[in-house]
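Hi R.,

Here's the chain you asked about this morning:
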Amino acid sequence: MSHPFILGLTGSIGMGKSTVALMFAELGVPVFDADAAVHRLQGPGGRLLPAIEAAFPGTTGPDGVNRPALGVRVFGDKDALARLESIVHPAVETLRKEFLLEHAGQDIVVFDIPLLFEKGGWERVDAIAVVSASSEIQRRRVLARPGMTPEKFAEILEIQTPDAEKRARADYVIDTGQSLEETRADVVRLLEDVRKRLASA
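And the predicted structure, written out as tokens:
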């Protein structure tokens, strides 16, 4: 194989994806966190600040991108959002390629991508793991977050691929509605299964 087996990890808001990503990392599997990459690119001294400032004047400063200010500029404006994505996505892709090169000797790597289905990232992975829990657990977790409201939660769900569709399209479903030990056991079994597939390929 010319590159490690790429497992795409995704899940709707509040489903526990970050917790599962950490479990993979603790088991020695390198994890590329797309959200963290964007935060680095847009943070203090981030390489995207000049381009974002040129496209959206007044939205950056010494602390990086002023996310609320930038959000106001692109929210509900498809052209502005497309302009921002045309700046951000190629830079994230570059970081992803660097990550693959850095971990070329590994058998498996994880791409942690929240909008894997929504943005077409599913086409660039070898298998997909969806993190899921019941809608009641999801709602409870999300509404416990600071500043979250039922209205905001509804808006986020509106733009995300429904959980049932994600599960139907997944190669693996990881249940986070159970204990952490049980979820970790599911992650271990998933890795064993992938390694069996690699051994027989």
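The domain at 1-30+107-201 is CATH 3.40.50.300 (Rossmann fold).

Let me know if you need anything else.
M.
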